Amino acid sequence: MAAKPSSKAKSAGRKTPKAPPKSRAAGKKRRGKAAAAAHLRQTVSTESKIARDRIELAAEVLQILNQPNDLESAIGEILLVVKGRLGFDAVGIRLSQDGDFPYFVQDGFSDAFVMKENSLCLRDEEGRLIRDPAGNPLLECMCGTVLSGRTDPNKPFFTEAGSFWTNSTTDLLASTSEKDRQGRTRNRCNREGYESVALVPLRSGNEIIGLLQLNDHRRGLLSVELVRFLERLGASIGIAVRRQRAAHVLAESEEKYRILFQTMAQGVVYQSADGKIISANPAAVRILGLTLDQMQGRTSIDPRWRAIHEDGSDFPGQTHPAMVALQTGREVRDVVMGVYNPRAESHVWINVNAVPKIEPGDDKPCQVYTTFDDITGRKQAEEEMRRFAALPLQNPNPVLAMS
Fold this sequence. Notes:
Blueprint: H1 7-13, H2 21-65, H3 71-86, E1 90-95, E2 103-107, H4 111-117, H5 141-147, E3 164-166, H6 169-175, H7 188-191, E4 196-204, E5 207-216, H8 224-263, E6 267-272, E7 277-280, H9 282-288, H10 292-295, H11 321-328, E8 332-341, E9 346-357, E10 367-374, H12 376-394
Antiparallel strand pairs: 1-2, 1-5, 3-4, 4-5, 6-7, 6-10, 8-9, 9-10
């Protein structure tokens, strides 16, 4: 008796029915949706990471800018952070200097590149600067175009904010003319193998004071969003550069003033709105015969000045030049007065000018500074001349003695 075939054998002997076309299409559609959802999740995740990285980068830059570092150290730190976070091969910042825009700080460019590209000024065959009708040096290459504000936002490689960017310098040079690029370009970035390049202007108000540059040998590292982010970053850097430079200029000015204040031959005294002396220079200490400690806190009405007019009459404190300037808000010029010098134990004669200081928006002086020259020697000479001029009147019959 023959054995019955097993259920597996029966199954193997039969063909599996194909799924209906609609069923296959539905499955393919489901798989497509799942893949699209996975891709979307990955894209959102990547974009979120990029956004977080840029927020962290901006925070790091702002933290560096708010530290009391010198400008070169701060810019150097910022470039290292930008280079590390964005992964570019080379970064640099150019800042204005005597009409040119040399690299202030850079990282990643070769010494030969920096030496060749440091100056952007256009020169003639004899090496002399070529200037525009306003007398400003003409700047060449794409950096010069951005720094001169000659960009055209209608071109795809320029932005509304005046930046330049490309993901392939090779393709850009092959597809555009110098007229398209708004000027002569040296093309050294391309010859050095840099493909992705961004040039972002740094501004102080409406003035372009520098440029942020990012270069990489790889293609496709830049996007509109990244360039806009770099422009916002550049705005913060520009503000910090302006602030640092203003502080440097102020410090230099204060140092010059301090040297002048300490070494000038004229006496200088500062008085507060109530007439109290708050500061005096070494010349004032010498002329008045008082130490700074002895002068500080004194007012013009202090009787120890023993001030007198040229005719020897009292010179009341309320009518001293400094007090009149405080009361009227006007300068007082060339007033001669005598004050007692306790060190010399005699009066010294001074020619005084008083200038009130009025803060913007105020109508009354907040302080007054007085400058004065020691004219004691001149007064003594005038007195001698008057004395000799009076001799004939005192002795109308002089006798000439001869040996």
